[in-house]
Write a structure and sequence with these properties.
Mean pLDDT: 84
Helix content: over 70%
Low-confidence stretches: none
Number of domains: 1
Shape: flat
Largest sheet: none
Strand content: under 5%
Number of helices: 2
Oligomer: single chain
Order of helices and strands: HH
Distance between the termini: 32 Å
Length: 54
């Protein structure tokens, strides 16, 4: 694995770690089952992909 691929994988992992942390906070700490993060993250990715293609 090259250094460039390793850094890319590390960046992706850190982004997904933030998503997991947000989901953990809503379910365990706040004791409120809010599923907004599961819908807003893919929606943001779809909007970003569409804007990149334009």
């Amino acid at each position: 694995m090259s250094l460039y691929a390793f850094i890319g994988a590390l960046e992706t992992g850190l982004v997904f770690a933030l998503v997991a942390l947000g989901s953990y906070l809503t379910f365990r700490v706040l004791d409120f089952p809010d599923l907004t993060i599961e819908g807003s993250f893919p929606l943001g990715g779809a909007v970003a992909a569409k804007l990149m293609v334009m």
